[in-house]
Amino acid sequence: MTSDDFWSYVVAEGDADLTPVAADPHDDTVEELVDLYRAMRGEHPDWDEYRASMVKDGRLVVRMSVHHLYGMARD
């Protein structure tokens, strides 16, 4: 991630864990995507459409355990 002036940045190093790609509108990956959506955006106006889109787009969830974080902040 950088700022508009490209002088401020942050780097996260760690281990990533990937879920399987969404294969069915009601599989565990889609359920986790629904939970993430609700946590960040609230309720979706059409959950059936959202679930179908997650499968169509081949979405998955990336979980990262951060071991080291560094960067430079500019005021």
Descriptive overview:
The protein has two domains: 31 residues, no CATH class; 39 residues, no CATH class. Helix content is 32%, strand content 28%. It is built from two helices and two strands, in the order E-H-H-E. It has a two-stranded antiparallel sheet with strand order 1-2. The chain is elongated, with a radius of gyration of 16 Å. The relative contact order is 0.32. The model has no long low-confidence stretch (mean pLDDT 93).
Largest sheet: 2 strands, antiparallel
Total strand segments: 2
Strands of the widest sheet, in order across it, are 1-2
How far apart the termini lie comes to: 16 Å
Report the mean per-residue pLDDT as an integer.
Answer: 93
Q: What is the gyration radius calculated from CA atoms?
A: 16 Å
Instruction: Give the SSE string.
Output: EHHE
Q: Can you tell me the residue ranges where pLDDT is under 50 for at least 5 consecutive residues?
A: none
Count up the domains. 2
- Characterize the overall form: elongated
- Percent helix range: 25-40%
Concise description?
With 75 residues, the chain is an alpha+beta fold. It has helices at 28-41, 47-56; strands at 9-18, 62-72. Helix content is 32%, strand content 28%.
